[in-house]
């Protein structure tokens, strides 16, 4: 039994690392990231272009996109720019899409407010593997 649980955990970990670059994202996630890039650059871009770093959390109703400044100067329109390299400097930004609606992006240092927004957006239907199904 432990072997099966270990294998299941390893598969979940591998699945969670998918889509770690912009080009690896599925169509739906890419649309959300594009919206986050546009909104974050409008609200927080201070001279440097903010671009996709990771999707920190994701469920059926919520996607939390983390953006970082890049080596490129800010310009409009704000879209993903492959030639820009990410930098680990401020401002790092969290943009939360809840059921297709994205409020103003928050600086990562506002962890309490980020957690509140994620809790306000309830997860979709959760199905536990191996649990009873009414069809059977």
Describe the structure.
This protein has a single domain (19-120), classed as Roll (Nuclear Transport Factor 2, Chain: A). Strand 1 and strand 2 form a beta hairpin. The radius of gyration is 17 Å and the shape is globular. It contains 3 helices and 5 strands. The protein has 136 residues and is α+β, with helices and mostly antiparallel strands. Residues 1-19 form the signal peptide. Keywords: Signal. This is Cystatin-like protein.
Outline the low-pLDDT stretches.
2-19, 131-136
Q: State the end-to-end CA separation.
A: 24 Å
Question: What is the 3D shape?
Answer: globular
What share of residues are in beta strands?
Answer: 15-25%
Name given to the CATH architecture: Roll
